[in-house]
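hi! just following up on the protien thing from before. the input was this:
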Amino acid sequence: MRYLRLVIGSIVIIGALYVLVAEHVTGASSNAFVNAPIVTVRAPVAGDIEMPSRTVGMQVSTDTVLFSISDVRADGVRLDDLILEHDLALSHVERLKAEKAVLEDHSVWLAEMRDAYAAARTRELAYQTEDPVDPLPDLTDPEKLEDLDLEDTVRNASNVDGNAGEDTAQASDAFSSLKALQLDTARKDLFLDDTAGAAWNYAYWSGTARQQLARIEAELAEAQAIATSIDDRIARERVRMIRLTGGDIASPVDGIIWERMVGDGINVQRGDTIMKVADCSAAVVSLSVSEIVYNRLRTGDPAIFRFSGADTALEGTISRLAGAGAATVYDDMAVKPSKEHLERYDVTLIVPDLRGADMSGGCAIGRTGRVFFQDRPLDPLRRLLN
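and the predicted 3d structure came back as:
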């Protein structure tokens, strides 16, 4: 029994020593802290800064206006010229629209007058001609016109008094034939009597009005296209003027204001640094390890990050192995490493839980902890207690 107690005691002592040694020998970082890249916001143009209440450490998002900048000395002559050209083009469009409306009404009136005269004159000739006549051939056909002796008919009708040898019946037949011819041609919208001038003018000016209307429609389409083109040029010039005169400058990232270089009302030059914003959406864990541990690590290896004084373990992945003296990789980071950190071997860890939507506490930038690269003997007990 005495030997059994001795064996059990030895096993307990050896196990305790193993746990103590393993907890300290297992690959881990000497120090680790949450870090984030810094985004520098510069002045896009020279001008005066108008900055609302923006304090260091304030949480911002991509729709938060950091400051406004304006340059009252920006040259807007080109924009003014384009606006003037646009106004002139619109006035030309309106004038053409008015001319088109008037010409359309005039063309309709001419067509109505032409049709009314043609109908009335045709009825008048029908009343003057008592006997129906055979329809004449198509008067627009030159071959058929050659067969029709219109000149002889007209000569017989107009020279009744001059031809003493012809009797009255023949003159009457010639006059009737002339009236029949006038009636038949009138039904084809071709008037041969002495009142044909008005009808011909109505038809002529109606055709001319249609031609003018087509020309005005073409000019109107051209003027509208020119006005649209000037509109596009004005839009581009306004964008260029905005770049020259400044405007509201929003935060480029979701994060916190890390540093503010100028105050409200200060005149700055183009390219001057106005603010620095820590990008919480790209938060990482910076740490340093010994050479032995560093040489066992590979990019993509899993790791566990634990805040100091907290029991919650956050899973991460090694994203960069910068080695010893990696001071330059922190030039654009929020937190710079200590001298002791640079004497060891630098490692960067991506922890997705640090990049969540919750940015309370400045997305934990600067908080410290430790990173473990292997399971420790007491990890099962820690997970059970958590």
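The first strand starts at residue 31 and ends at 35.
The chain has three domains: 27-36+283-385, 38-64+251-280, 77-137+165-237.
cheers
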